[in-house]
Structures are given as structure tokens and as C-alpha cells.
Amino acid sequence: MQTVRKPLVAGNWKLNGDLTLVNQMRETLSSADVSFVDVLVCPPLTLLHGFESNELRLGGQNLSEFDSGAHTGEIAGKMLIEAGCSHVIVGHSERRADNYESNIIVASKVEAALRNGLTPVLCVGEPEEIREKNEFLPYIAEQLDAVVDKIGVQAFSDLVLAYEPVWAIGTGKTASPAQAQEVHKFIRAHLAKSAQDVAEKILILYGGSVKPGNAAELFSQPDVDGGLIGGASLSPQDFLSICQAAKQ
Ligand code: 13P
Predict the structure, then answer these.
(1) How many other β-carbons are positioned within 10 Å of the β-carbon of residue 30?
(2) pLDDT digit string (tens) for 208-241?
(3) Are 96 and 133 in contact (CB under 8 A)?
């Protein structure tokens, strides 16, 4: 992690949590100094109201590419803003797989987030078979390029990226710090080909089985600017330890 980029640690609660956990998380995080890191919590939407605005950054886990209309069950960017969110996760591999979100749809959702003043946390990452075939760098480039084609590379200055290898999510099989660094460096270099300034400033988080025991080494890699945490973000103590591991 480079000192020019303030680290960000984000918790993606997925389909987990309740108001008891909200209160425990608030209590634990407010008991410690985490001013050296930006902390973002992305709980299920119905729990957002349990957090006080401005004590933490809040994010949604998904949004509609539309701003309104006949789209039952969807949530619009401006609704997330009204609920206190500053960020929204877009293109998580679970949504790409479970909800058939293509690169094109993901790009539209990134555009919708930006249009509504939200910072998208755009997730990219390869499944296991692509890693085994050693085709992961072109695969990730294609995921990025679909968004570049839609919004232009300069708009990436308002984005956060997250590299989440699908084989490392919820499996306990973390990417090694060297594997993470290889991809993060590649992503930055890929963007730098068309926008050096954007590439230098953009935050690239690592996600996939980050735990208190491996976070510091991952975050110490020069192109890893923090983490997107799933399972361990449901334990207030573990999440706090991971946030503390972002201290440079
Ligand atoms: P785990 O930390 O549980 O592997 O999940 C990572 C993730 O998908 C965060 O978005």
C-alpha cells in the first residue's frame, strides 16, 4: 500500500446480520482509533438505519441500473443515498453468478451509481478454471474494459476497485500476497496505459478469505490498498483487527 492512497477496509455482510450485530459492530469500532483507514460497512439494506450517519461509511451491496420505474424488488442509487450510503458494491461475483449479471449489466450499474453520486466498489476476479488455465489477466482486463468502454477511463477516478478471485471467496483459500500483488499491479498498469493519473490514485482492494492473521501481509503489498471482507466482517473483533492491519 502506498501512503498517497488512504486505505479502505470494507465489510460485505452479504445475506447476514441483524440489529444486534449492528450494535456490537458500532460499539467495537467506536472503541478504537481507526482514523488511519476508511471503514465501510455494507450490511443488508434493512439494517442501514441502525447505523448513525457519519460514524462510518455505509454502502449497498447492489443497485439497479435504472433510477425508477416498474422493476419490482430493485433499489435505485438515489434510494441508497437517502438511506445514508456513500458507496455501493457492483459486480460482486455472487451477483454475476446468481443473478446472471454480465459485464454489460455491471457497466450499466457502475454508470447508475456514478450518476446518483455513489462511489461504486467494482468487483473483478476470475473463477478457478480460468486461474488454472493461466488466463486470469486477460479475463480481468475484459471485465475492466467493459466498464471503461461504457463510462470512459477518466470516470475511474470516482471508483474503487476490488480484486476478488472467485476461488478465494468463502473458501479459506486466500490468494498469496504475491498472487494478489501480481493482479493488483496488472490492473493499475492496465488503467495507466490510458490514464496514468487515474491509475496512481485509484484504490484497489483485495477480497477473498481475508482474516486477522493474513490481512497485514496482504495490505503491505505496494498495490493492495485495503480489503473487501466477507465472513470475517461479521465478527466485530475480527473486522476491527483487519482494519487495524491497514495501519502503514
Ligand atoms: P470472504 O471474506 O468470506 O471470503 O468473502 C469475500 C467477499 O466476497 C467479499 O465481498
Answers:
(1) 11
(2) 999 999 999 999 999 999 999 999 999 999 999 9
(3) no
Instruction: Say if CB 216 and CB 20 are below 8 A apart.
Output: no
Contact between 123 and 90 under an 8 Å Cβ cutoff? The reply is: yes
Cα of 7 vs centre of ligand 1, distance in Å, is 18
**228 ligand 1 Cβ < 6 A:** yes
Which H or E run includes 122?
strand 119-124
Which neighbouring-strand residues pair with 122?
90, 161
Q: Which residues are known to be catalytic? A: 92, 164
**Cell match 453468478: residue?**
97
Q: Is the CB of 77 under 6 A from ligand 1?
A: no
State which ligand 1 atom lies nearest to the alpha carbon of 170.
4
Cell of 119: 462511489
